[in-house]
Amino acid sequence: MNALSDPYELRVGVPAAEVYRRLRTDAGLSDKAPEAVALALPNTWYGVVLHHAGEPIGMGRIIGDGGTAFQIVDICVHPAHQGKGLGGEIMAALTGELERRAPATAYVSLIADGPARFLYEKFGFADTAEHGSIGMYRTMG
Question: How is residue 97 annotated by DSSP?
Answer without folding.
Answer: H
